[in-house]
Amino acid sequence: MNTHKPYWDLTIPPIGTSKTPYSVDLEITGRCNLSCAYCFYADSMIQKKDLPFEKWKIILYELGSLAVQRVILSGGEVFTRKDIFDIIDSVIENRMRYSILSNGTLITEETIQQLLIGKRRIRLDYIQISIDGSHAGIHDLSRPPQSFDRAIHALRLIVQHGLPATVRVTLNRHNIDDLENIARLLICDIGLPGFSTNEAEPMGTARCHGDNILLSPDQRKKAMKILRELNEQYGNVISAQAGPLAMADMVDEIDQHRREGKTGIPGRGTLCSCGGVFSKMAILHDGTMVPCNMLPTLVMGVAGMHPIKEAWLHSPAINALRYRREIPLSSLPTCSDCAYTGYCAGGCPALVMAIKNKLNAIDPYTCYRYIIGEAEYHDLM
Hints:
The chain contains 15 helices and 10 strands. The chain is α/β, with parallel strands linked by helices. A 10-stranded mixed sheet has the order 7-6-5-4-3-2-1-8-9-10. Strand 5 (165-171), helix 8 (179-189) and strand 6 form a beta-alpha-beta unit. It is globular and about 60 Å long.
């Protein structure tokens, strides 16, 4: 375990940090044709203005000169931009690959034909569509009416034309009893090789819809059980980096180590759950550089005004997250008397920030003691 240090020079990155990011999330627009009940990006949409294509072209040139390998284009809804294909072509001109995150409702046959042209198809890693139910009656409870039919139509078009497709299912109070049907639709009917899941979090619009959209503790445990069973049924093709399935995988891993008499898991025991800041960063739709698009208040600078490489290496905003993994869980008041600190990683820093308004703390929902019923939520706040 790393030794807790009371102070780091946050203008100097930890040893081993790459000289440039491997990938960058680009929130190319704050505009969206939908207004979903759990949009984490809603606050940034209101406060910031979209950069014009000419500015994005300069930023993409700079990313290419830094040998960034991949970008993920999202928003807002990327297809609200009339110049989306100009942006994609600029990504390609600067020798990068790209992925697209979309709600699917604006994707048409014409959109697909544009994506099939030349290197647009060759450099495309995937298009991710958000699907939150097996039918409109479920999906549209957390999205505007008629969203489901348009999203499914888009997904079928993508698959039909051989473009790489993936789906993200965001678990919420409306769809946990529909998970079996969602899996059947996506895997058996549409023919996807798998899909990913996460969970609606208390940020953005979800703060206003909490009791109607966020999972209760009992619902989260129910979702963990259902997703375990579905993954066994379908051969582990459902994935997650956060949310109930990720929690279920974490609990299974810790339980296995405990059965083997181990007191911890190598690389755990500190606030180390987020490793993304060592390989990626984000640029918001007004050019603001941040460590992660879910942490819009941790400003690293403004792309086009401040050098991206300088921000990547020397911004205190991102280095605070990198050095966070040096903090032992045992040094935190909530965890000082816990026998399981050697197994844990503290949870997503963006969610910690949303819940506690600070970084150096744990996410109570991902606490092993809380999940197995040995600690109360209020004791971990």
